[in-house]
Every structure is written in C-alpha cells, then in structure tokens.
What does this fold into?
Amino acid sequence: MKKVFILDTNVLLSNPLSIYKFDEHDVVIPISVIEEVDNFKKDQSDIGRNAREVSRMLDRLRTKGTLSSGIPIYEDREESGQLFVYLGHNMDILPELLADNADNHILAIGLTLQKQFGDSRKVFVITKDSNLRIKADAFGLAAEDFEADKVDISHLYTGIAHRKVTSDTVNDFYIKREFKLDEELSPNQFVILEDENDAAQHVYGFYDEIDHKVRMLEPRTDGIWGVFPRNIEQTFALEALMDDSIRLVTISGVAGTGKTLLAIAAGLTKVTDEDQYQKLLVSRPIFPLGRDIGFLPGDLEEKLNPWMQPIFDNLELLLGGGSANRKKRMNGNGYNELIHQGMLAVEPLTYIRGRSIPNQYFVVDEAQNLTPHEIKTILTRAGEGTKIILTGDPYQIDNPYIDSQTNGLTFVIERFRKEKIAAHITLKKGERSELATKAAQVL
It folds into this structure.
C-alpha cells in the first residue's frame, strides 16, 4: 500500500535530505512548516544552515513542476513518490484545538488526508516532537519518529569482542603470539580470549583484518605523562590513541571513565615527546549545563575560559604529574608555555568551518553534543597527517535537537566500524573517584 508521510519542521531541520528517505511513498510538507523553516534561515547555527538547505532544495524541485499538485522526488526511478506542499487545513476537523498552532495544522492536514484516502492509503505524521506524536495518537492518526538517521544505542559497537576458547588455545596464543579466527571482526577491534574453564585466565589481542588473525597485544609497562591505564578498556583505548596508523579514534563512556584525560595525555606524548605531530589541538562544543548565566565580560579568551575550563583541568592534572625534565623544559609555566611554543591550542568548535588542519593531534571533547553534519564538517577539516579523537557520553546530551540515537558521536561509531583507519572503544568503569563512579551507577 502506498503511504503518505507528513513531515514536521524538526525533521527537515535535523536532516534536509529527509524527503528522500521514503522511497515510493508520497511526502507532504504543510505550508506552516515552510513558514517555520523560513524563521530559522538567518540563524547562524547548524539549524540555520539546514533551514537554508531545505529552502534551496525545495526551490530546485519547484522548477520541475508544481509543488501544490505534486513533483516526483526521484527522477531516476520508475516508481517515485510525489512531494506536495499542502496549502490548506480545515481546522473545523479539530474544533477543540487552537487554530494558530503549527502542530495543530499538521494534525488537521493528517486527519483531512486520512479521511480523503480512507482505507486506500495510510497517512503518517513524521515528527521528532513526542508531544505531537501523543496528540496524533489521541486523534487516531498514525505518528512516528524519524528513524532514518537513528542508531540502535542498545547495540552500539563497543570495539571489544569477548571469545571463550580452550586452555590449549590460550597457552598456544602465549607462544605463537597470534590466533587464527574463524570469523570476521571489525578492523582494529580488540579481542579478549577467555579460558572456557577458568574465567580468570584470559589474554588480550587485536584483530588483523588482512590475515584474519588475533595478534598479541603487547602491554605498555610505562605510562604516558604520568597516566597509567587502570583497566583493560583504558589499555585498549591507549593502544588506539598511540597507533599512528589509526587516523580516527572514538571513545565513549560515562563520566569519570578517563576519556578526555587519556586522549590529551596521548596527544601530549605524540607532540612533545615523539614529535609525531606539529600541534595538539583540543576543542569542544559550547553547551551549558543547566541555565546559561548570560553574556560574559572580557575579550574572546576571557569569554571562552569558562567553557574550556574542563580541558584546562585535565591539562593541569597531567602537567602537574609530569616528569621533572618536562617541568624544567616548560619553565614551570604549565600549559601556557606549550601554548606559547605553538605546541598546544585549546579552541571552541565555533570557527572550525572552512579551516584545514594538517599534521595535528586533534581531540574533540563532548562530541555527543554535535549533530552528524557537524561531525562531518570536523572530519573533513583533517589535513595530511592529522589524527582526530572524538570523546563523549551518548547518554549525556545538552543539545536539544539531538538524542542518544541521533547524535554525531554514535553516528560516526557505527559508520566507521568497518574502516581500517578507525578504531573505537567503550569505557565502562569509572576511575575518577569512588564518589563519581557510584553517582554514575545509582543516579
């Protein structure tokens, strides 16, 4: 049965290409939605960029026909859905709701079309607004969330595979330092081989996708900038961070698992000790926790300091625990000396568009607050020799336009899981403090 999908404003603003996700079915955009999109066109955020893209896309389609009577969405398909801009809405069908509410206009259009088509076609309201879905259901109108860009967070790739093997296999792995695997895993995936008879006996390795073998992971006996991994997930994360053949590393985990600290420590080692990269660039999106305190006084640096302070906290911890030689080399000035030498930069992500970033160790903290498009913008800034690390907690999102299933971090984790230049690790155990770990568990 051919269906009709009515798109809400938030669907178009989250993904301007959403009209192309419904195959042979028809797509309806209410005129009130066009007006709402127009209100966002001058916004300088990613929402504004999407609003302008929606307007340009509809204007291009308009040249191929009349939006009020329907335009084929796909020119290269025999069975293509039609795109309509619906001009009228009969609010008499919803007498108990306000006529000047855009959501109510969508409901009125949905009920009008459902009455028009009867049993021949099913009408759906597609919206990311849960309240609109509730109201639609109350009026007997089908409503769904936009699922095309969603990632099943319950089955999110962890970067680690657990396999039970025999005792002989464990012993043989210690001798040969490799193990032939009968299945195919993701490139750079870490593997825990556990003795099926004794869970305390286990060995660690990483998957070589070329030979389909698990190779022994040589544990690091020395820490980096005074930081030693405290659990096996941190060990795996550190290996990925220090491997120069891996150009993209994603690290997810709840608060206090060491995501940012490990990433910055590895970056400092690569830049200052190994001279592998020209600069360590650390950045994060600007989103407040709770109510914003308003405009901040001072110049640009003074305005940004409160937002960048979590990064400076980690830098102070690392530089305070560094070796005496490092402290002497920095003349006791900590990260300010590294900034002065051009080896460290701490910046917001606000001005990333249009830049080219070559030969840098680029750490993006709180990446779960970015949209898939913003993540794409960041990754396409990477120049020759640059390594990018994305860290964040998919369950701790401050951006009102995304959630745990649609944010940029989970999007990248799933899209890059089969790429040879990428690796991912999910950190589970909190190491910040006993209080922080308990709070993450019980609250």
Q: What stands out?
A: Residues 288-294, 322-332 have pLDDT under 50 and may be disordered.
